[in-house]
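User: tokens in, sequence out, please.
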């Protein structure tokens, strides 16, 4: 029996962190030859007894779709692999919409089932097609790497296995599978590449699929080396809220090409790992070069925000909340800024008279005023005139029981306190 496919699968999985596989694998199985081969090959490989589960989806687009999901369910029962059946119901049958539904279903499943990865049946021809599609669309170095063997949580164990090997594996083991007739239609870009462009290239190079796959691997190695060099030029970021801060000058003192790579490196380190398209990088680079404040979104629920002389990368910042009641002297408090103790002390920087208690510890709010010597009651907004907004809204004040501000961060104590 030809075991070339299982050997290739084992080779691919050997590069995946063991602890990731130990959490379990969700196999996305449509019933097509690629995913059915993956399902059975994973079952044969699983001598260590890792948790394997499968998901199959009924798109309702073909009369045979219910039969195909039933076939997948039967095969999973034979292999003793739990199978989750999901139905996709939407009036919009565009491929990108369906793909989005499939991704969401898989991501929700690994979260609810506490599994480590999602395995899909993408293979050598898919990789070659993806490279050509991105080349035609004008992708840069990052995009021309095409698909990755593993980009958490997505795993493609058959990425460098050709279809001949897949079909031989299925026939030798008498494994049933279904063919999707839409794969022959040329309404889709990928199908036109598959049926019209690749045959022309194969006439010049019979091993064109392997050649193109080698190109993606070479570009991936070069891109990885480049990213290591770029990362070495960047300072360590400062943590801020759920993201990080970098100096704004980092993005204004270097060439546009290097700044683009800075943005890619930062974004790639922040989950969820969504690849930035060239237009996103160019928009971010232009924003950082020209703006003095403000915020712009990035794919993957991420944002860039200029805060003074720093740049924040992370989930969109929300207006912070802090309001802690401190009922009496020497009372500990806990807030988003850490732990502390408030107490009246004539020897410290601030003496809080007994009649001011209980106190409120909170963030600055619009309309706050602080008594200043020789100036009367002054708006904090004026005192903080040159403080960036995102820092300003996180400055702490201490308020007396009567509502008078006794102290404000960066402004000090009120006159007479």
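Assistant: Sequence out:
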């Amino acid at each position: 029996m030809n075991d070339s496919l299982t050997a290739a699968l084992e080779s691919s999985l050997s590069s995946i962190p063991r602890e990731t596989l130990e959490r379990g694998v969700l196999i996305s199985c449509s019933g097509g030859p690629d995913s059915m081969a993956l399902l059975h090959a994973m079952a044969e490989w699983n001598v260590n007894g890792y948790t394997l589960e499968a998901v199959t989806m009924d798109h309702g687009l073909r009369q045979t779709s219910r039969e195909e999901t039933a076939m997948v369910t039967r095969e999973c029962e034979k292999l003793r692999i739990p199978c989750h059946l999901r139905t996709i119901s939407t009036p919009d049958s565009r491929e990108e919409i369906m793909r989005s539904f499939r991704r969401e279903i898989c991501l929700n499943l690994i979260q609810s089932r506490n599994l480590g990865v999602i395995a899909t049946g993408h293979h050598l021809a898919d990789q070659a097609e993806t490279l050509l599609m991105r080349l035609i669309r004008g992708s840069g170095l990052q995009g021309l790497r095409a698909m990755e063997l593993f980009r958490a949580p997505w795993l493609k164990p058959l990425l460098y296995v050709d279809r001949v090997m897949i079909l031989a594996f299925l026939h030798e083991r008498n494994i049933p599978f279904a063919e999707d007739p839409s794969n022959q239609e040329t309404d889709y870009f990928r199908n036109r590449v598959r049926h019209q462009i690749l045959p022309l290239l194969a006439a010049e190079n019979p091993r064109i699929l392997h050649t193109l796959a080698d190109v993606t691997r070479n570009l991936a190695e070069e891109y990885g080396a480049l990213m290591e060099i770029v990362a070495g030029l960047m300072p360590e970021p400062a943590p801020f809220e759920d993201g990080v801060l970098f100096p704004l000058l980092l993005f204004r003192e270097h060439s546009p090409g290097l700044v683009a790579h800075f943005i890619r490196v930062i974004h790639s380190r922040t989950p969820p790992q969504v690849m930035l398209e060239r237009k996103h990088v160019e928009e971010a680079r232009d924003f950082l070069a020209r703006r003095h404040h403000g915020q712009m979104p990035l794919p993957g629920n991420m944002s860039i925000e200029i805060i003074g002389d720093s740049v924040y990368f992370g989930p969109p910042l929300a207006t912070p909340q802090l309001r802690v009641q401190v009922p009496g002297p020497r009372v500990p408090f806990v807030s988003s800024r850490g732990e502390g103790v408030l107490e009246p002390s004539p020897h410290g920087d601030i003496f809080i008279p007994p009649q001011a208690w209980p106190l409120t510890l909170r963030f600055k709010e619009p309309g706050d005023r602080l008594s200043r010597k020789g100036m009367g009651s002054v708006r904090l907004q004026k005192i903080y005139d040159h403080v960036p907004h995102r820092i300003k809204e996180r400055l702490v004040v201490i308020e007396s029981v009567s509502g008078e501000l006794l102290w404000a961060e960066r402004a000090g104590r009120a006159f007479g306190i």
